[in-house]
Every structure is written in C-alpha cells, then in structure tokens.
Write a structure and sequence with these properties.
- It is a single chain.
- The chain is an alpha/beta fold and 285 residues long.
- The chain has 10 helices and 8 strands.
- Strands 1, 2, 3, 4, 5, 6, 7 and 8 form an 8-stranded mixed β-sheet that branches.
- It is globular.
- The protein starts with 5 loop residues before the first strand and ends with a helix.
- Bound molecules: adenosine monophosphate (AMP) and manganese (II) ion (3 copies).
Length: 285
C-alpha cells in the first residue's frame, strides 16, 4: 500500500489548538496533507466546519476526537476515528466529560489561589475560544501574568502532579470511551502511548484491557513521543493484533513539537489503521 501523507491527530480552537477548524485544514493543505483527522479533546463540535473546508481543498477528512480517560488512577488519551458523529451515546459521554472539565477548572483555580495566584479561572477562560477549558488555557494565563516564560516552562512549575494548579480528576472509564467509539462505528486508538509514565510492566495489562473492550489500534508514531519508541509499540501492536496509527498531535504553529503532516514510515510489520477504511484506500492517489 502507498503511504499517504496522513495525519490522524490534531487540535483546533474547539479544544486547546490555536487555529480554527477551517484554518487548521488550510494549514494542512498547504503542507500537502492528503488525509486529516481533527481530534479535539472531548469535543466534536469542529468536525463539520473542518469537513466542509477539507472538501473544498480536496483533503480526505476523517472524523476524530481525543477522549480523556482514567485507567488505574492514570490519565490516558484515547483517540476515536472514523465514527458517526450523530451517535447519541458518544455525544452525551463527551458532554459529561466537558462538564467535569469545568469542575476541575474551579479546583485548579482554587489550587493556584493557595499559591497567591488569583482570578485564574476568569483569566484562563479568556484564552478559551470555544468551550472545554483545559490546562493549556491556564498555562497561557500564567505566562501572560509573568509566572513562567513560556508554555513549556509553565508545566514544569505548575499544572502537573505535586505543583500548584494540579488537581486529580476522574475522567471517563477506558471501557466507556472505547465502547462509545466502537458503537458509533469508529476505531478506538491509544494516543501517544510513550507519554504515559507507567513502566514496561503495565503496557501489556493496558493493551489486554483495551483489546477486551474492543479497542482497534495504537499510535505507533506520534509527534508527542520519541521516535525511538516506535519499534517497541510496533511489537506490542503485533502481539495484541492491533492496527497502527500515526499523527502529529499538532496544536498550532510555534507550540507543537512536530509540524502537521509529518509522516514517518510505520515499521514494516505494522498494519495501518487506514487499511480498514475503504474511503481512504480507494481515494488516495
Ligand atoms: P488537559 O486535558 O486539560 O489536562 O490538558 C492536556 C493538554 O495539555 C495536552 O493535550 C497538551 O496539549 C498540554 N500539555 C500537557 N503537558 C504539557 C507540557 N509539558 N508542555 C506543553 N503542553 C502540555
Ligand atoms: Mn492538548
Ligand atoms: Mn493527548
Ligand atoms: Mn492530542
């Protein structure tokens, strides 16, 4: 199969990206991306706008979302791809996660208050464009107030476990997230597996649970993890009979590790997730 210029993980202003859904698609088109998924955190409100722009620019658009999940007290991200966006359970599940995000944000502001940083909730909200508030919006607020020199440094001093502004939060269960995606006709994929601080012993348990719940794939290549990890995840994908996915995790020019549409060949033994999708296989040229 020819490897298309495919990016199956990206963010817009609907969550914590800097570009609107249309701007993101135009940006991807200028960089010759052929197949794009928009995967905002816990929100699918950008899909329609992105799809319309993708049609104009002759990009194959894949519905996507990145769902926040708690598994064994750890936060994981599960990508949903190629699902029916009108599915009621998926829509309701995501809505409840966004309500949880609002509550968490109040706790984060209280925690920052204890460190004498006041009015952080109002401040962070000024950086949200659409809705669902997250740590990035607090990060922008903290930089704007001079508490850190840039986004990277904010996360070293704040917003991470043990630091001001961090609060534990119970997201969706792994089983629920995978079920919503699968029942909406989509494929659930473990996002940036190399980012989770869990040691090699736990990965087999995670993959076994994920597979039991109906999970389809794993991001073997991600802009959010070191490329040296891809062989390990390719081996795990093979062992658990999972498809392989890839994506930049692009959040915006200047703030992302990797540019949109960066494509690395998946290791040879991988079965690309898009080999399941007739619309991609038939239309790619
Ligand atoms: P949240 O889902 O609100 O907890 O926010 C998670 C988001 O924060 C991730 O998707 C990244 O966009 C961003 N993030 C987390 N850690 C860092 C970091 N160390 N540097 C930059 N961005 C980060
Ligand atoms: Mn993000
Ligand atoms: Mn993520
Ligand atoms: Mn992401």
């Amino acid at each position: 199969m020819i490897t298309p210029n495919i990016d199956l993980h990206s963010h817009s202003t609907i969550s914590d990206g800097l570009l609107t859904p249309s701007e993101l698609v135009s940006y991807a088109s200028e960089r010759e991306v052929q197949v794009l998924a928009l995967t905002d955190h816990d929100d699918i409100a950008g899909l329609e706008e992105a799809r319309i722009m993708a049609q104009k620019l002759n990009i194959i658009f894949i519905n996507g979302v990145e769902i926040s999940v708690t598994w064994r007290k750890r936060t994981l991200h599960i990508i949903g791809l190629n699902f029916d966006e009108s599915n009621k359970n998926l829509i309701n599940g995501l809505k409840n996660i966004r309500i949880g995000r609002e509550k968490r944000a109040e706790g984060m502001a209280d925690s920052l208050g204890m460190a004498s940083i006041f009015n952080a909730l109002e401040g962070a909200k000024k950086f949200t464009k659409h809705g669902a508030i997250g740590r990035i919006h607090f990060a922008h607020f903290l930089v704007s107030q001079g508490h850190a020199k840039d986004i990277k440094h904010v996360f070293k001093k704040f917003l991470t476990p043990g630091k001001p502004g961090y609060v534990d939060h119970e997201w969706a269960s792994l089983e629920d997230a995978v079920t919503w995606i699968s029942e909406a006709g989509g494929d659930a994929v473990i996002a940036h597996p190399g980012r989770y601080d869990m040691g090699r012993k736990l990965y087999p348990s995670l993959l076994a649970d994920f597979k039991d719940f109906g999970g389809a794939g794993i991001e073997v290549m991600s802009g959010s993890q070191d490329p040296s990890q891809s062989n390990y995840f390719a081996e795990l994908a093979e062992e658990y009979n999972l498809f392989a996915s890839c994506g930049s995790d692009f959040h915006g020019p200047g703030i992302s590790h990797r540019a949109i549409g960066f494509v690395r060949e998946l290791p040879k033994q991988c079965k690309p997730i898009w080999s399941k999708w007739p619309n991609v296989i038939n239309d790619i040229h």
